[in-house]
Amino acid sequence: MANNLYRSEKTDQASESNDANQELQITSNALDTLSNIAHRFTNALYPGAHLVEVRDENQRSSFCVGLANEKVATGLSDVEQAWVAGTIAVAAVETTSTTLSFFLYAMILHPNVQEQAQKELDRVVGRSRNPAFSDMPFLPYVRAIVKEVLRWQPAIPLAVPHVLMEDDWYEGYFIPKGTSCIPNVWSMNRDKKVYGADADEFRPERFLRRSESETGSEFILRDEYEAEDGHCAYGFGRRLFSFSSFCELVLMRNEYRVCVGRHVADNALFIDICTILWALLIEPKPSIDATKVKRGPSKDILNPIPDFQCTFISRFS
After folding, report:
1. Are residues 184 and 239 in the same domain?
2. 119 and 205 assigned to the same domain
3. Which intervals of the chain are annotated as region Disordered (predicted)?
């Protein structure tokens, strides 16, 4: 009995010793890490130094790298550059995620649309590779889904305000020069004179016409929507630019009020929606009626996302 107690006591002491050594080891590693960070920050204060290693020959292209390289040409300070980069990030991230959420909601409301898009993807892409941007001309139905989501549920229902440069009249109303006008994108996107009696409904086919070719494609985009958005989600302003760089375009954003990232957004939504539909089945969560969900909390100027739930099922075993 005594031997057992002695062994137990020695075991407990050894365990405590190991724990103490482990704690000391962790503490030592943490101190080394903190010391290394402090050392790097101190060195970065010297002129010409960098907080991280910079290898021009290996760096990946990005907007921020381009902005930094054009610092002399743009005349922006470091703080102004940070604001430009931050504006692009905030404007792109929230609006794109909101649009993708409405896309998922549309898919559980309209499984027939999802099925049609997946038939197109299976025919064009197959199952041996991921969708690519080079597939875009051959995926008119998916492109129509992107347009219809942006029309049906624009991420920002009210566009950027404009100021009248001269007096104007509109439907009997006099609007003096200098008046701020806020375009009602929501109403314009659901104009029954433009989109038909079902303008409030989600129907990608409104941008399509039946194909007469023998390539296997059931639909093609209507001619007028090959170059045009077919919606007002990106606001208004000049759409053709002759700027030498995207940075210069951002600097001129007060004059050119159309969304400066519209082409980036279109491409991002296209490839995201393609990949989701190619890989997954999107179904409503069982026991939940997707047609009766309520709007979620308001997020400043963004269109509130419905409080819905869905299930993702792999299409490939």
Report:
1. yes
2. yes
3. 1-21
Burial of 220 (0-12, 13-18, 19+ CB in 10 A): buried
Enclosing domain of residue 261: 75-314
- pTM, two decimal places: 0.70
Neighbours of 94 (CB within 10 A): 16
Number of domains within the chain: 2
Query: Are 178 and 127 members of one domain?
Result: yes
Residue 58 belongs to some domain of the structure: no
Are 13 and 110 in a shared domain? no
Rg, the chain, Cα only: 28
Residues 220 and 156 both lie in one domain: yes
The answer to whether the beta carbons of residues 235 and 160 sit under 8 Å apart is: yes
Would you say 270 and 283 are in contact if contact means Cβ atoms under 8 Å apart?
no
**Residue 162: other Cβ atoms inside 10 A:** 15
Tell me if 219 is assigned to some domain. Answer: yes
One pLDDT digit (tens) per residue for the chain, 317 residues: 444 444 444 445 444 444 444 443 444 555 566 566 555 655 555 555 555 555 555 656 677 777 777 776 778 888 888 887 777 766 777 888 999 999 999 999 999 999 999 999 999 999 999 999 999 999 999 999 999 999 999 998 988 888 889 999 988 999 999 999 888 999 999 999 999 999 999 999 999 988 776 666 788 888 888 778 889 888 887 544 443 444 444 444 444 467 777 888 899 999 999 999 999 999 988 767 777 777 777 666 788 888 888 999 999 87
CATH of the domain at 87: 1.10.630.10
